[in-house]
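Quick check before the chapter quiz. The format below is the same one you will see on the exam, so make sure you can read both the input and the output lines.
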Amino acid sequence: MTCCSDNVDKSDPAPEGQSSRQNSVDKARRTFLIALGTAAVGIGVGYALGYLTKPAEIIRETVERTVTVTRTVTVTPTPTPAPTPIPGLSGAASRAIAGVRDLLNKGVIAPGTTIRILHVAGSRANLEKAIELWSKYVPEVRVELITLGTEPDVYTKAMSEAVTKTGAFDAVTIFSTWLGDIVEAGLARPLDEFYARYDPEYVGPCAPIEPLGSYVTIYKGRRHSLALDSDVFTLSYRKDLLTSETYRKEFEAQYRKPLKVPDTWEELIDMARFFTELRLTAPSGGRVWGAYFYLEPAFAAYITWFNIFVEAGGIPFDLETMDPKVESPEGRYAFDIILRMKPYMPPEAISAAWADLYDKFVKGETVFTAAWPSLTKEAMRPTSAVRGNVGTALMPGVEVEVGGRRIVNKAAPNPVNWVGIVSNYSAHPEVAYLFLQFATAPDTGLDMVLTGVILDLFRACWFTDPRYRAKSAEGYGEEFLDAYMRSIEISYPDILIRGGTEYLSKLTTEVNNVAAGLKDPERALSDISAEWDSITKKYGRDAQLEAWRALAQLFPENVKSVWRAKGYMK
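Here is the expected output.
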């Protein structure tokens, strides 16, 4: 998945309540996609393969690693008897279909029942594929799409439904960063009962890779969503430049160390400087810069700072008081790395929209970068100047001390992610859940991901099981699959608590301010801390602390080990 949606029909409703900043990002995104010459879609997992079916679609103006997770669940579900496997379907998909048939046979729902899914336009092809497959097995239950143009539209409609409680839709695809807001508003139905009854395969060889499978679906210890996507970052680099014998000899002579995939940000800075100072010319005719990492003002700048901060052992909030902990040595170190790397990045990194990073990398104008999995798809296109010359690796790490020894602590950001929630006001919540389980099952889910636009791989078997891996590799490449699976295992969540987007928006603004020279790091960190504390007070310190404590447990174990060594976690 890419961070945002694309391929929006002219008939889609105009955004409601969208800020001028969001409008500028959307405009930049669409301009970039047109410039790439993509007929069907732009950035996303897989190219749109065309609409294989045309199920009923509604476009409305108004909608009336391994990780141990401790959960307290009070429901006692009645297990559905194990169904007879349906030929050609995985167990999770078979159980979903059997569950719907059981509800039909018992008269709980009638033939002709329709469930409605609220979603962003960019995921339409994905969901249409899932509906096509669903219709082969339970044509008696229809699925209709309520398609909105942009992410802010979906958020606004979902939060409106939490107030109006009309039951106009049964499920919603949302960013995982909204989960805290959506749950606290009362819209998202807890799903533990359905998980236990129908088993979507969240344990075992085909489960979503942890900790991602937990942190995008669990809020305050309960399951409230099903994973549709993963958005973990990897390091992408120009393999042709990094493996050049000429450049290897020159770098080693100058820096007295080998030119290789960087293990740390410190190593990457030296390599970025080396390639920038060579003043190479890209195939596009533009200059080759050593690095390009997000510092842009509208949305993504927080990603770079937060990744370095977490790897350095920083923790966003105190686990006892909910006080912000960004005004710290780790926070200052993250800014230090950014400011030292800035001279070797194109000036547009500070001012352009997020899509500019994609544009420059596929033109061969940057050596090191990091983004969503869709960047690899862009780089593999026939029109890409770097096709066949792109390497993928884990994000660079930070050297820290744990137990008296120095280690390189690596973590991978997972900005946003699409997940599916069931509305508390749905007339058919069980059926809505069963559709989401079917759509994200090991077999049907892979078909959905590879058919559409904004969803990416998240189940382990899609990387490891020969039955699925070959199909995954067609879309992403073998090297990417190996690096991406390891990256998911060390990935960490965004601030998935109530007000998460507010915390991250403030962080993005201040990171960009420092990168643009408008503030010094100390002032920016102080302002972030003050604003974060204000957001916490607005939503209630005790409630926010409860949510943060649960979320902190879902960070990767290596990150938590550093937190313990620093005394941030018991």
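If your answer matched, good. The CA atoms of residues 296 and 352 lie 6 Å apart.
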